[in-house]
Amino acid sequence: MNEQLKNEEFRKEWEENQPEMDIIRAMADARISQNLTQKELAERTGINQADISKLENGTRNPSLKLLKRLADGMGMDLKLVFTPKEPQNLKLAK
């Protein structure tokens, strides 16, 4: 991965997609931590199971309203955090 991140085009694409990947990972991790299936979460939220699957595999981007419904269905609060960007050289070292 470090070698690929040295490629400017790859690194730029990776960085642009990272926030979406973080949301997808957080959503799936929250569901799994509660031992919920996608079907069970769909029943709790009224969101179609196929749509939850699309969200988790990255083929659909969720709105904030949809993320709030998912959080509510899992008995969780939705929090968005803005954090300072890391210096470029630290990103490549990871």
From TrEMBL:
Gene3D superfamilies: lambda repressor-like DNA-binding domains. It holds the Pfam family HTH_3. The keyword DNA-binding applies. One of its GO terms (molecular function) is DNA-binding transcription factor activity. Residues 27-81 form the HTH cro/C1-type domain. Keywords: DNA-binding. It comes from the Bacteria. This is DNA-binding helix-turn-helix protein. It comes from Faecalibacterium duncaniae (strain DSM 17677 / JCM 31915 / A2-165).
